[in-house]
Amino acid sequence: MFNRQLIRVALLIGALFIISTNTVLAHGSNPLERSTIHITRSLNYDAQRANISPQIVKTIIRVFSWKVDFNKDLRKGDRFIIVGNSGINPSALIYIGSKKRVAVFAYTDKRGRTNYYDINGNSLYQSFLSAPLKYGRISSKFQRKRLHPILKTLKPHRAVDFTAKKGTPVYSVASGVVQHRKKMGPLGNVVYIKHGSNYTTVYAHLSRFASGLKPSTKVKKGQVIGYVGSTGRSTGPHLHYELRYKGKRKNPLTHPLPKQKQVSHSDLWNFKNKANTILRSL
Ligand SMILES: [Zn+2]
User: If you measure from the C-alpha of residue 192 to the centroid of ligand 1, how many angstroms do you get, rounded to a whole number?
Assistant: First the structure.
């Protein structure tokens, strides 16, 4: 009991120390002023302790989740450095983890939209593939009511079915992390892949999975994740493909997909200079 009390007091003193150092830094008018989130428990918890606004935390999650798996990669002792945190768009966000470091810098394009780019001026995400396989034809589109070929009832089909020969390789449409890889009722052998914080893709009826593919495995864009089959509730070999955005199933053929962005060529020199100045100040 006594020990537990002691730990609690030590934690409190530690937290107060972190808050006070950050407050001192946040009051300066220097554009290179910075705050640090020291990870002790979770990003949300530690950000609050460091006086970082929820809006900036949202930006951190949106930008870094293309490179950092917040469930698996984050460790005690990792840091997020926020440079120029007086506005809603800090000039740089830097993650320093035990395994990797990722730094991104703000750039506002001609239309006035601010995004974050790596030191070479590329967004952390790449463009998605338009289809996850070389297919024969689309046998069923995204629709609210479809006469189900096996159940003979009207059911929504919030996916696209691509017909292809059994064994045709199926690719991940973007880099991401495997969430599920299992046999799941009507979907048969299915793989779920999470891309960034908002997108998930689902690949169903596979005949088999790519070897070595497991939950939490990182996959690259275009990597083979399985092979076309007819497992689960299916009338013949095809890929049932779903695109989920913020948890909702969207039409994969029409829903806007991330396209890699770049700092415009004419601004690149300036952008790199600013980024290097920030990195040198750390
Ligand atoms: Zn389907």
Answer: 15
Residue 90 backbone class (left: φ over 0; alpha: ψ -120 to 50; beta: rest): beta
Q: Compute the distance from residue 6 Cα to the ligand 1 centre, in Å.
A: 58
Look-up: residue for tokens 């800090």? Answer: 90
Helix (H, G, I), strand (E, B) or coil at 242: strand
The alpha carbon of 225 and the centre of ligand 1 are apart by a number of angstroms equal to 18
**Which pLDDT score, from 0 to 100, does residue 4 have?**
56
CA of 135 to the centre of ligand 1 (A): 14
Task: Note whether 205 and 189 are within 8 A (CB).
Answer: yes
Stated as kind and residue range, the H or E segment containing 103 is strand 101-108
Verify that 7 and 119 share a domain, yes or no: yes
Identify the pLDDT of residue 63.
Answer: 95
> How many structural domains compose the chain?
2
Tokens 């396989």: give the residue.
133
Question: 131 lies in a domain?
Answer: no
Q: How far is the CA of 140 from the centre of ligand 1 (A)?
A: 7
- What residues in the chain have per-residue pLDDT under 70? 1-30, 85-86
